[in-house]
Amino acid sequence: MKKENIYILGIESSCDDTSAAILCNDQILSNIVADQKIHTEYGGVVPELASRAHQQNIVPVVHQAIAKAGIQKDDLDAIAFTRGPGLMGSLLVGTSFAKSLAYGLNIPLIDINHMQAHILAHFIDEKDHKKPLFPFLAMTISGGHTQIVKVNDYFDMKVIGETIDDAVGEAFDKSGKVLGLGYPAGPEIDKRAQLGNPKAYKFTKPKVEGLNFSFSGLKTAILYFVQRETKANPNFIEEHLNDICASIQYTIIGILMDKLKLAVKETGINHIAIGGGVSANSGIRKALKDAESKHGWTTYIPKFEYTTDNAAMIAIVGYLKYLKKDFSDFDVMATARLKI
To answer: How far is 125 from 185, CA to CA, in rounded Å?
Structure first.
């Protein structure tokens, strides 16, 4: 007899957020995230501190997720966890915990690719959220990744464009550091960009063949621009911060949208989904919405809570794999550089 409700525990520990979620089939019952404020004072994630914090957080976070879902741990049908990509020490904490709990409960273990999860988060059943139609193009944009992926089916994905150096999130954060903003700088740049003139300052877009990206040259250009202007006027940043942020954001969004347009032209696919932490950016969301009317695209934009690293996206992939009986062996290893 087929079981009516499948309960999946998802565990995410790829970077500096410890998260656990419970899904009943494709619906969320809980999604708990414990972030790590300690990295703010260092201007970036410190791997050793991150793994230590995961060790402290994972038991209470999982306990809270199960309690909030209103179930018992014995109700779980499988445990899905992030195998990679990510920070090795952080991944090891989640992997070890998931293995131990699954073994103790005698239920299946399911390893999940973090980048696939950002894409498949769109298939969480949510009111007023439309699910992408296959095939579609997914742009995954975060602090560590910038990719365009052709998605033919849940587990038939191909990366058709990616950054050859830095990720878009890093471009935001490093630019913010030059401007004296805190970490992470992306949200602050986004906030200030809405108050500034996006065409106040012009930054040259990198010339990269095909669908690949490059952001290292842009970071350098912004650094030299700020150094030059502050030499002439020591108060330049303070007096023009909103315009600088707006111009940086305008340039980055232009780079992303140019590549998306090219991807649509090359593939003939005009269904576009975004995912990853940078997909929370209001300018990117607006640019995609504008493209719906201007270019006839159909766009899929995730809820804010599914843009950053979270376990709900891990659990939905776990559910989809559970339906296929695609389970992991208990000797599965965390992999820092796991590919889609």
So the answer is: 31
331 falls within a domain: no
Q: Which residue has the tokens 């300690």?
A: 38
Work out the burial of residue 231: count CB atoms within 10 Å of its CB; fewer than 13 is exposed, 13-18 middle, 19 or more buried. exposed
Together in a domain, 276 and 312: no
* Domain containing residue 281: 132-302
Q: In 268-297, where does DSSP find H-type helix? A: 282-295
Q: How far apart are the first and last CA of the chain?
A: 34
C-alpha span between 83 and 275 (Å, rounded)? 18
Kindly state the average pLDDT of the residues 8-24.
Answer: 95
Q: How many CA atoms lie within 13 A of 320 on its CB side?
A: 21
Structure tokens given for 290: 């504008």
Instruction: Please state, in angstroms and rounded to a whole number, the distance separating the CA atoms of residues 279 and 142.
Output: 8
pLDDT digits (tens, 9 = 90+) for 155-181: 999 999 999 999 999 999 999 999 999
**Does residue 118 share a domain with residue 194?**
no
